[in-house]
Structures are given as C-alpha cells and as structure tokens.
UniProtKB/TrEMBL annotation, chain A:
Protein name (record): ABC-2 family transporter protein
Domain of life: Bacteria
Keyword field: Membrane, Transmembrane, Transmembrane helix
Keyword Membrane appears in the UniProt entry: yes
Ranges that cross the membrane: 12-34, 46-69, 99-122, 149-175, 187-212, 232-254
Keyword Transmembrane included in the entry's annotation: yes
Automatic annotation (TrEMBL), chain B:
Protein name as it appears in the record: ABC-type multidrug transport system, ATPase component
Cited PROSITE patterns: ABC_TRANSPORTER_2
UniProt organism field: Desulfosporosinus meridiei (strain ATCC BAA-275 / DSM 13257 / KCTC 12902 / NCIMB 13706 / S10)
Stretch forming the signal peptide: none
InterPro entries on file: AAA+_ATPase, ABC_transporter-like_ATP-bd, ABC_Transporter_VariousFunc, P-loop_NTPase
Family annotation (PANTHER family): ABC TRANSPORTER ATP-BINDING PROTEIN ALBC-RELATED
Alphabetical keyword list: ATP-binding, Nucleotide-binding, Transport
Residue ranges occupied by any ABC transporter domain in the UniProt entry: 5-227
CDD domains: ABC_DR_subfamily_A (cd03230)
Pfam families in the record: ABC_tran (PF00005)
Coiled-coil regions listed: none
GO molecular function, one term: ATP hydrolysis activity
Amino acid sequence: MLGKLMKYEIKATGRIFFPLFLALLIFATITRLLSSIGPEAWDTPAVISMVIYGIIMVGMFVMTLLMMIQRFYKNLLSDEGYLMLTLPVKPWQHIVSKLLVSMLWIVASIFTAFISSLVIALKKGDLTKGITEFTALYHRAVQELGSSVYIWSFEIIIMLLISLASGILVIYASIALGHLFNRHKMLATFGAFIVLSTLTQIFFTFLGMVPGATYLSNLHISANDILGMQRIAHLAMVGGIIFNALLCSAYLAITNFILSKRLNLE
Amino acid sequence: MSAILECSGLTKQFGKKEALSGVNIKVERGQIVGLLGPNGSGKSTLIKLANELLTPTSGTILIGGKKPGVDTKKIVSYLPERTYLNDWMRVNQLIEMFSDFYENFNPEKAYDMLKSLKINPDDRLKTMSKGTKEKVQLILVMSREAELYLLDEPIGGVDPAARDYILQTILRNYNEKATVVISTHLISDIENILDYVIFINQGQVVLTSSVDDIRDEKGKSVDSLFREVFKC
C-alpha cells in the first residue's frame, strides 16, 4: 500500500516538478548558446535568459518547500482528506509516503540545479579535468583514511538524508498540531513550529551535557593520532545519526497520533 | 453474522459541546436505512465516527464487529457531504486509483454509469460543475461492492431529475447482503426506498423503527412522523 500511495503522490507532484526541471534545463541551454555566440558575452538576450534561468532556479526551490507543505495539508487535512483518510491504509503510511516523495523532489531539484549549472558553465575539457581531480582526491582520501572512506561516505549520506527527513517531519508535526486548533490554524502551526524547534534545540543542548559527550570532549588526542581522531569523529557521526533518527520518530509519532486519534476535518 | 453497524453508549464531544451523547443503535444487514434528523443533529458526526475520521470520546462503534480501521475501510463505501476530489485528475484516473486501493471496486460498473449520465471519463474534475462532481463521487462510491454504504446527504446538492437517477443507482447497485445508510433531511424524496429509519436529534436517537411499522401501527408516512417528532 505504501508503494501505491507513493505512486499517486509522485503523479500528483511530478506534474509540477517535471516541467520546472525541464524549463530550468532549457533556459540553461539557451543562456549557454546565447552567451557563446557574440564576442562580448553579456549582450542583452543572454542577460535576459540568465535572469529567467535564475528566477526558475529560485522558483524551483521555493516550489519544493511549498509543495511539501501544501501536499500534506491539502491532501490529508482539507476536503481531500475525506478521500485519502478513508482509503484502507494506515495513517503512518500516508505520512511516510509524503515524506519520501518530498525528499525525492528535494534531492532531484538539487541534482537538476547542479546539472543546469554544468550546462551553463562547463567549458571544453572541464569534464575530464573534473574527473581527474575527483579521482585524485579519491585516491588521496583512500591513502589517508584507508577503507573507512566508504564508511565515511555512507555515514555522511545517511546523515544528510536523515537531517532532511527530520526537517520535513518537524513541519508535518507542526501542521498537525496546528490542526488541533479550531481557529487561527495558521498561527497555531507557526507557534507549533517554533515550540518544536526550541524543544529540539534544548534536546541537543542537553545531549552535550550527558556524561558520554563530556567524556568525548575531554579526551586528549594529539593531532597526529589520525586513527584516534577518526574513531571520535565516527562516534560523533553515528551519535548524530541516532539522535536525528530519534527526533524523526518523535515527530512522526506526534503526527501519526493526531492523524489517527485527534483528527477533525472541517 | 454480527450486525453491520453497532453503537453502544457512543459519545462524541467537541470541546464542551456534545455532538453525540450515548447513542445506542444496531443496524442489521441487508436493508436501506434512513438516518434522519434536522441540521446539526449529529448525523455527519455518526458517519464520520464510522469512518475513523473522528475518534469517539467514549463508547464504542463497531462495523461488522470490528472497530473502525483498515479492515472496516475495506468494506465500507463512504460518500461525504462535500466534494473531496482533487481538481487536477481526470475521471478515468480516479477510477484507476479506486481500483488500485479497493479490491471490491468494479470499474465496468463505473464506466457504465458514467455513460448513462453522459459524463466523459477523459474530463478533468476542474472543468466540471459542482453537481457533476457530486455525481462522479456517487458513481465511484456505488461502484464498490461494499458491505456497508454510508451516504451522507447524497441528494442535497443535485437537481430533482438527477436525484431520481441517484436513488435508482443506489437501489440498483446494492446487493441483498449489503446495507445502505442514507443521511438526509429531505425525507419525502427517499421515503419510498427506505426499510428502516433512525431519527436523531441533538445528538440523541429519538426513534428507531421499520418503515412498515410506522405505516401500519401509526398510519403515517415517515415524512409526517418526522414533522411531528421534530416540530419546532
């Protein structure tokens, strides 16, 4: 059922994002072509096309944020909720399907932005140069860190994804909390967001005070001790992942509780 | 087999306001039930509780012996009193979606009904009038071979001609074992198809009876009994 929900979520959002991605790539190409024709790169058409490209780029990222909020609110907590929430599906599956699809579009937007900037800026030979530099960097990293390079990359990717997820889930939880109020829902949602963010900050501050963390920060490690440094850094990274995961589950639990037990559609 | 819908001591409060208080009803399978009451009497609240769109403050509501949840949603076909369809989809996409999520959805039935109401399955919901959207919703809901149909004000927003078609549709599409609960205050329009009525007022059940009993024992139509019970 989660898969089916995601399929419809991608259909509902893809009709906005695919044209945006396409427009961004088209204007990147136009900008590229226009600026390469004339001897002076900054003639009027090229500038106009560059500005449009910039606007689409900003629009794309604003849209990912708006869509994330709008899909959750409109599809589950407004009239459309009467359809979605009477499907034979558990509420958490709705939340997770929306979360995963939002993450997908954010990553896809970043990827498209990167590709479009390559389209504009890439000069002949840049690609081979880039690849050579990247391989060199990679070899150096393997030399310095050994096989833990892979663990590092894995940890960093997980950390980025889970931070992204907690950023989205805090917004879902705020919208759900705002829904509990009969009036001034918008204001209540903002209030809930501020309260949740503050609580999260306090949570992380406390975390810095627990014995383990104190122990970590008091450890004396000389700068030469790369292996020891690494161990500490790994611990910190894994700790960060675990605590972010805890945050995610807390936000998810709040949202799920409200959707299943405190729902009150208008 | 257990009753299809059973409430005992069902209470729902919104803040201090009690929308339903201590409702006890038992609806047996295989009949058309009118859930009748004036505006704000708690009809929609009861139906929403049955669909897990609300959670009871106290008491229980059981659908086929089970609390509302994924299992009951599979056998309940619900028509809300508002249009819940998003604007950007086409009718055939909605049919696909319903087939995807509901095992008991019969797409052929849906296409047949669309045809007889002259609604083009390729049309987007955005281009449709409110009445047409309501018809599409009813078609989707009645194309499911459900055990319990909960229809909240199904005839409120459409013209009398469409009203007749809708009632025929309801009659034609429900099978012997299924139960249909229709909530409305337009009683005279649906009186002829009802087997059983539940009168509800200010969150309380004031009368439950079979329609035959009302006619035989009291010698009245449901409509005139309603006017009598809810006299202002």
